[in-house]
Amino acid sequence: MDPSTTKPGYIVDAYKEWVGDNVKNEVVLAYVSMHESTRIMVEHFSKALIRQGIVVRQFNLAATDLGRLAIALVDAATIVLGSPTVLTGAHPKAAYAAFVANALRPKTRFASIIGSFGWGGKMVEQLSGLLTNLKVEVLPPVIAKGRPKDEDFNALDRAGRTGPGQTSRDRECLTPERTDVICA
To answer: Cβ–Cβ contacts within 10 Å for residue 102, how many?
Structure first.
């Protein structure tokens, strides 16, 4: 028997959850890598988030089923896009993931970008511009020049400690560069 006919509360509860404001303390990390720099950053960042007790759902856009990505976006608190810079812009698969997220308008609270570049470009601006329909707080991106170095891994670790579920003030308290914020 179909639960929609025998248990209408099942459908009503599912709908309430879908349209409600509650999100899960999860990060959807959709990425594509060309020369492994972005993949290395994604793996490091994922480990930093997991150490903080945050669930990470990684999607390698080179092989991901778009439907699975869309399902994961519905309840996740944070979206992080990972992309190398290709001809001064985002990788087309990362741009497509951003476009899909923007079209779906999930109830996500935070968004950020990680990736790499060889000689500059506008990858961050391009991906950010594709997320304009999302009502999110944009967290600072972490972008490495070439293969990630110690300073890039440190930035990823800081980002992992200041991730979803915290207020802007909490993030400021964890940023060692800030001397103008007094934290209890």
So the answer is: 15
What is the pLDDT, as a whole number, of residue 163? Answer: 58
Q: What number of CA atoms fall less than 13 Å from residue 149's CA on the CB side?
A: 5
Q: State both tokens at 78.
A: 């944070």
Mean pLDDT of 89-106: 96
Q: What is the pLDDT of residue 143?
A: 95
The span from the CA of 99 to the CA of 119, in Å, is 25
Angle between helix 92-104 and helix 66-73 axes, rounded to 10 deg: 50
Residue whose C-alpha is closest to residue 27's, from 5, 59, 4: 59
Cα separation, 68 vs 65, whole angstroms:
6
Question: Per-residue pLDDT tens for 133-162?
Answer: 999 999 999 999 999 999 999 999 999 887
Rounded Cα distance between 110 and 74, Å, is: 13
- For 2, 41, 119, 130, 159, the CA distances from 44, given in Å and listed in that order, are 44, 5, 23, 25, 11
**pLDDT tens digits for 54-86?**
999 999 999 999 999 999 999 899 999 999 999
